[in-house]
Amino acid sequence: MSAVTGKRPPLLPMGLPIDPDLIARIGWIAAFFISGYRHLGSAFRYMRNGEIFTVLAGPEANLFITREGREILSAEEYRRAQNEELGIDKTLVSMDGEEHRRHRQIQQRGYARAALDDRYPDLVSAIRHAVGRWPRGEPILVRDALPPLIAELLGIGVINHPIGDHFDDVALFVRTVVIETVAKTRPRSVLDSDQYKHAKARSLALADRVIAAHQATSDGPGRPDLVDDLLAAWAEDPELMTEQELRIAVLGGYIGGLDTVAYTCAFMLYALLAHPHVLTRVQEEIDSTFAKGMLTPDALAEMKTLHCAALETLRLYPLSAAIQAKSGKTFTFEGFEIPAGANLTIATTVPHFLETFYEQPLAFDIDRFTEPRNEHRNPGAYAPFGLGPHVCLGAAMARSLISLTMATLLHTVDLEIHPADYELTIGMIPVPVPEDFHIIVRGAR
User: Does the model's pTM come out above 0.85?
Assistant: First the structure.
C-alpha cells in the first residue's frame, strides 16, 4: 500500500445512465457496478439511504483484496446489526482476525466437498423424489420449486437432519434477516412482525432439534458432520460460543447456501433450456454417466461439460455481485485514500463482464473454461464466491451440489421453458433470481 494521499474516490453522479439491455441481461446490481467502473474507474463512491459507500472494482480491486483484505476489511462492524437481531456477538461471517481463522478451521470439514461423499445415494434419491412430485404439463415457477429441494439437500449434506416442515419458516427467517439488517432495503419494522417472530422461533427450534439429535448419537458410525465438529469444539472450549451462537452456526448452511445454490441452479436451468445445443451436450454427458451406475463423487468430477456449464452460470449470473464490509483501517487504493470506518463494497464480479478477459462476455459460452482459452484463470478475472479472508467456506460443496442437482434433474425429466418466448427478467429476494421463469415437465426421461 502506498502512502496516504488524502484524495477521495470520485462520487458517482446521480442519474448515471445504465444500459437497459445490460440490466435485463445480468440484473440491476451487477449492471450498476459495471457502469460505475466504466464511468469512473476502479474506485468510486455512491450514496444509498443517506450513507456513502466506497466501491473498489475491477481486477485491480480483486487482486488488492486477495493480497490485503485480511488487514483492511472489518466484517464485525458491518454485520453488527445482523448480530444484534440474532442475539449473538459473532458468526463465521462477522468475525475478523485470529478468532475468524479458528472458527473457519472448526467448520472447514463440515463445508468441504468431501462432506457429501457418502451421501450421494440419499441426495440423488431426494432430488428424484422432489422432481417426481412436480406436476406434468403444468407451468412450474422455478423460483418457488427449487429452494425447498435445495433445503432438503442441505439438511442431508450439511447437518444430517431433514428440514421437514420447517422450510417456510427457515426461508422467511433467513431472507428477512439479510434484507433488513444487511441489504437494508425494507423498514426494520418487519423484524417486529408476528410472522417473522414465529419463523425465527421455529428456525431456532429446528436448530435445537438438530443439536439434540447429534448429542444423542455422538458415538454413532459415519463421517462427522458440521454439527459434530461444532459440538466437539464447544465441549473442549465452552467459551468458544454461546448457546445461541451454536444454534446460528448449525443453521449456517441454510443462511449461506439456501438461496445461493437454489437460484444458481435456476439460472443454470434457464441458460441450458435457452441454449438447446449446449443442453444436448450436457445431457449426453449426464446420461452416459448414469448409464454406468449410481452417481458417485468421482463420476461427478469427470463430468467436464456439466462443470463448465456451472462455472459459466456462476460467471454470467453471480448470486453475490460484491462483498461488503467496513474498512478496519485507513488505506490507499489506486492513489485514493479510504478512511477507517468507511462502508466498503468490493465489486468482485465486475471482471466477469469485461472484454479484457472474456470473449463476448454477455454470451453463455461454456467453452471459455476449457483449453486453450481458460479465460477465468487470468488473475482477478473470476470471483463468484468472493475473495479475501471471507471467501465462501462452502464454495466447493456448493459447486458439487449445483452439479449434482442439475445432473439428476436433467437425467430424470424432460423440461421446456414456458412460454417458449420467455425473456429473462432478474429480480431480487434478496439475491438475484430469474423472475417469472416457468418450466413444464413434458415427461420422464
Answer: yes
